Amino acid sequence: MKKILFPTDFSEVSKNAFIYALKLAESINAEIVTMHVYQLPQANYVNVSEYLHEIYDVTELSNFENYKDEVPVLRKIAEANNLTHIKISHVLILGNLVPEIKKITENENFDFVVMGTKGATGLKETFFGTIATKVMNDVKALVLAIPENCKYHSIEKILFITQYKPEDTGSFLRVLSLSNIFHAQIDCLRVVSPHHEVKDDSREDWKVLVENNEVTFHSIKGEDVEGIILNFIDLHKINLIAMHVYHRNFFEKLFEISLSKKLAFHINVPILAIHE
What we know:
By secondary structure, this protein is α/β, with parallel strands linked by helices. The protein has helices at 12-28, 49-80, 97-108, 129-138, 169-182, 203-210, 225-235, 248-260; strands at residues 2-7, 30-38, 88-94, 112-117, 142-147, 157-161, 185-192, 215-221, 240-244, 271-274.
């Protein structure tokens, strides 16, 4: 059975993302492990040593009680979506979030990490924030990030952002596998500068791999890469964006530009980060 790690901070953003974790688990026959990571307080004041263990005990107990209270909430979400048959277990960990996610995914062989992402509160902030970006960059499992305003829709159209390079082939095959699971259509898109000479184009090789799958290959010339992709998402009603992790800087640019346009495009589509 496959395994999905679901980091949660008990927020509404996390609860919204949990629906995607449940639906994915059903589709790929996986179990879910929810995970909450907490830190102990930093005590810097004088004469704290005699109270230190008591402070830590109270903090750990509080985190345990909070987590215990959240478990029934997650179960109710499963019930509301008729997914109570999904196996769900829970872990509470003391540590730093990103290193702990990286460690548990490697040691326990998780296939996916599904997590909610909070929106920016100011124009200077990127959409993902530090934690989700670091998880996408550092964690080798497939990372599915669910924006806070993203309401669940079945995955029918997947956008794979690519340069059609040979090193993208592994990621393309993973997207192709997911499209078979979801019975989804794939749109592969490359945005290239009008002044850029295209080399190492793997489209012809990929066409041999697709067989009976619904895959359309696009190449659009233009300088405004992020704007072109945002238009494509809106025009083609994309339900999931996927890309190789070496595009990580693009994540930030994509959401910065959506904010600079004063949210003319509402980014409410899950994004899948793929490592190879």
